[in-house]
Amino acid sequence: MPTKPKLGQNFLHDQHAIQRIVAALGDCSHETVVEIGPGRGAVTRVLATHAAHVLAIELDDVLISSLRADFPADRVTVLHQDVLDFDFSAASAHAGHRLAVVGNLPYYITSPILLKLAESHSSLDRAVLMMQREVADRVSAAPGSRDYGLLSVTVQLYGSVEKLFTLPPGAFSPPPQVHSAVVRWRFAPRFTTLGIDDEAGFLRFVRQAFAQKRKTLANNLRAAGFSPSDINRALAAAEIDAQIRAEALPIEALGTLWNKLRSRL
Fold it and tell me: Are 129 and 182 a contacting pair, CB within 8 Å?
């Protein structure tokens, strides 16, 4: 069956990797698992023997037919849909529990899918996701590292991310031009523990703080419209170096700074 490059199709065929991905979900024998992009069903086949039920979301209309023919409907529900339009909340309510997610994410829409999952966090328990290695490095990066940035903070605000293993191009058909990596994301939003009651406002602040990578945090905030005096007072109150860049700050420090700034607005 030919692939559709515009859909970012690189089908995993490494059986050992498939077993590791499903094992990384842990016990899902009483859970509904959402699979993003089942493709030809290689992971689906193993998932169907471990999960109570699988919701397989596939965009390719040709693959839909073969998937529905290959799997019994009482074990696997194949949905012809764009995952960005999928209602995780409704699926969770129907299942009666928070969902587990697994997926080989198309490289060209990895970030939008991650943001969709973050928005759906209240309906999700954990996700085991395969993506381009460079993106996996970013979402799992620690403060001060080369890869730490806006995507790291945005994803980690909704729970811890652990990079599990890397796969070479040869694990896929057709082989991509880059290495891939698998991460596990456990959903546990941190806004309450950070004392943040305005989720949207804080996310906007984080985008402003990381707007220009080469600029200091203070310069980025000035460009966003905060007054120099408010910035300097808030940095001092939060005990943050005035010359620091956002990439050096852990999420806790960003939360403290945001709260200090808000108290001056």
Answer: yes
Q: Which amino acid is at 108?
A: Y
> What's the rounded Cα separation, in Å, for the pair 123 and 63?
27
- Per-residue CA distances from 242 to 142, 207, 259 (Å): 21, 19, 17
Write the CA distances from 19 to 23, 29, 59, integer angstroms.
Answer: 6, 15, 24
Nearest CA to 131 out of 166, 159, 158, 155 is that of 166
Note the residue count of the chain.
Answer: 265
Distance CA 133, CA 165 (A): 9
Please say if the pLDDT value at position 5 is more than 80.
no
Q: Which amino acid is it at 81?
A: Q
176-229 residue pLDDT tens: 999 999 999 999 999 999 999 999 999 999 999 999 988 999 999 999 999 999
Dmax over CA atoms of the chain, in Å, equals: 65
Give residue 6's pLDDT. Answer: 47
**How far is the C-alpha of 75 from the C-alpha of 73, rounded, in Å?**
5
32 closest CA partner among 87, 71, 75: 75
> Is the full-model pTM beyond 0.90?
yes
Give the C-alpha distances (Å, rounded to integers) separating 96 from 27, 56, 91, 92, 162.
17, 18, 9, 6, 27
Among candidates 81, 77, 20, 37, which has minimal Cα distance to 53?
77
Q: Which residues pair with 127 in a beta bridge?
A: 101, 185
Report the chain's C-alpha Rg in angstroms. 20
Domains and CATH numbers, the chain: 5-187 (3.40.50.150), 199-262 (1.10.8.100)
